[in-house]
C-alpha cells in the first residue's frame, strides 16, 4: 500500500501548492508507514521533477503524453485513478486548487474512496478511520470530517500548511496511461493568460483594494505595492462590478476565496460577504480612513488613515527596507 500525490505544474513549473501537497503526503506517510509516490502529468523537465526530493519524496511517476499536454479534467482524473490503482495507493493527495476541486471528487468516485476536500489539517488516524479538519461556512467554523472508506482522497487547501524541506534522491519512472477517447471530449483550443502577475489563488501575499480608492485611475499605487511585495492584486465586488478591475480579482463570498499568509485590504469596508473569502488569511492588514470600519475587527494590524497618504509611504518604506 502506498500514497500517491498529484503534483500540478503551470507551463512546466511545479506549483507551490504541489510542494505543499508533497510535504503533506510525506507527513501522512510518516503517520501510516506508507511510501509516497508523486505523479506529474504534462511536459515537466527532469530538473523540475527532481525537486520532489526536497520534500522527502523519492519517486515520481511521469506521464507525458501528447493527449495530456493541456489540463482536461476527465482525462487527468482517469489517469490519476489509473496510476493510483497500479501502485495500490490507498490514499491520493492533491491540492484543492481550481483544477484540484474538479479532480478530487472524480478521482474519489473512480476509486470508491472517501473524499476530504478543502482539508486544513493532517489526519488523526484510528485504523482505517481518519479524521480531518476543513473550513466550512466561509471559514467561520472548522468541521471534522470522518473518512470511513479504506481508500481516501484528500484535497489540501492551498497555503494551509507550510511545505517542509528535506533532501532525498529521486527516481523518475515513465508511465503510459490508457486514455479513453471519451475522456478527451473536451478540447482546449487556446489558453489566454489574464495576467503575467502572481496567481491570486496561490499567492503568499495579496494586496486588495475597494471602493475607497474612488476609481480605476488610482490602482497604480495598489499595483506598485503588490510589485514591491511580490504579491497578487485583488479587489472587492463593487470594484469589479464597476469594471474598475477584472472579475478574476474579485474576492469574497461570490468571488474567489483566498488563504494567503498576508492580506492587505485598502479602502475596503469589511462587509461580511467580503470577509467570507479572505478571513482565513494568516495575517490581515487593514488600511481605512474610517476607524469604525468593520474590517478592523478582524485585522491583525490596522492603519487608520487616508489610503492616498498611507500607501505611497508604505511603498517608499518597503523600497528603502529592500535596498
Ligand atoms: P464600501 O463598502 O463602499 O467601502 C469603502 C471603504 O473605503 C469604506 O470603509 C471607507 O471608509 C473606505 N475609504 C474611503 N475612502 C478612503 C480613503 N481615501 N482611504 C482609506 N479608506 C477609504 N463584496 C465583496 O467584496 N465580495 C463578495 O464576494 C461579495 N459578495 C456579495 C454577495 C451578496 C449576495 C451581496 C448582497 C453582497 C456581496 N458583496 C460582496 C458586497 C458587500 O456587501 C459590500 O457591499 C462590498 O464588499 C463593499 O465593497 P467595498 O468595501 O469596496 O466598498
TrEMBL record:
SMART domains: ETF. Keywords: Electron transport, Transport. It comes from Sphingobacterium bambusae. The keyword Lipoprotein does not apply. It comes from the Bacteria. Residues 3-188 form the Electron transfer flavoprotein alpha/beta-subunit N-terminal domain. Gene3D superfamilies: HUPs, TPP-binding domain. InterPro entries: DHS-like_NAD/FAD-binding_dom (IPR029035), ETF_a/b_N (IPR014730), ETF_a/FixB (IPR001308), ETF_asu_C (IPR014731), Rossmann-like_a/b/a_fold (IPR014729). Pfam families: ETF, ETF_alpha. This is Electron transfer flavoprotein subunit alpha/FixB family protein. Belongs to the ETF alpha-subunit/FixB family.
Amino acid at each position: 500500500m502506498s500514497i500517491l500525490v498529484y503534483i500540478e505544474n503551470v507551463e512546466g513549473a511545479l506549483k507551490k501548492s504541489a510542494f505543499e501537497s508533497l510535504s503533506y503526503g510525506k507527513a501522512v506517510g510518516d503517520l501510516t508507514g506508507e511510501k509516497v509516490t508523486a505523479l506529474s502529468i504534462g511536459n515537466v523537465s527532469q530538473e523540475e521533477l527532481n525537486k520532489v526530493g526536497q520534500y522527502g519524496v523519492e519517486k515520481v511517476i511521469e506521464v507525458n503524453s501528447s493527449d495530456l499536454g493541456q489540463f482536461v479534467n476527465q482525462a487527468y482524473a482517469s489517469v490519476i485513478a489509473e496510476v493510483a490503482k497500479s501502485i495500490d495507493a490507498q490514499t491520493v493527495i492533491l491540492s484543492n486548487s481550481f483544477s484540484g476541486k474538479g479532480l478530487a471528487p472524480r478521482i474519489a468516485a473512480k476509486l470508491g474512496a472517501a473524499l476530504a476536500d478543502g482539508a486544513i489539517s493532517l489526519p488523526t488516524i484510528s485504523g482505517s478511520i481518519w479524521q480531518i479538519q476543513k473550513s466550512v461556512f466561509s471559514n467561520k467554523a472548522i468541521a471534522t470530517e470522518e473518512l470511513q472508506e479504506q481508500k481516501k482522497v484528500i484535497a489540501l487547501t492551498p497555503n494551509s500548511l507550510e511545505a517542509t524541506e528535506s533532501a532525498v534522491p529521486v527516481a523518475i519512472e515513465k508511465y503510459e496511461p490508457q486514455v479513453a477517447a471519451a475522456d478527451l471530449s473536451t478540447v482546449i483550443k487556446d489558453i489566454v493568460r489574464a495576467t503575467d502577475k502572481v496567481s491570486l489563488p496561490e499567492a503568499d501575499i495579496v494586496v486588495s483594494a475597494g471602493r475607497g480608492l474612488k476609481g480605476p485611475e488610482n490602482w497604480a499605487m495598489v499595483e506598485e505595492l503588490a510589485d514591491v511585495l511580490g504579491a497578487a492584486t485583488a479587489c472587492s465586488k463593487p470594484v469589479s462590478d464597476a469594471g474598475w478591475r477584472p472579475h478574476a480579482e474579485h474576492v469574497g463570498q461570490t468571488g474567489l476565496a483566498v488563504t494567503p499568509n498576508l492580506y492587505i485590504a485598502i479602502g475596503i469596508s469589511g462587509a461580511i460577504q467580503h470577509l467570507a473569502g479572505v478571513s482565513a488569511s494568516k495575517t490581515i492588514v487593514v488600511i481605512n480612513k474610517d476607524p469604525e470600519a468593520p474590517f478592523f475587527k478582524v485585522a491583525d494590524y490596522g492603519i487608520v488613515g487616508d489610503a492616498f497618504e498611507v500607501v505611497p509611504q508604505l511603498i517608499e518604506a518597503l523600497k528603502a527596507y529592500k535596498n
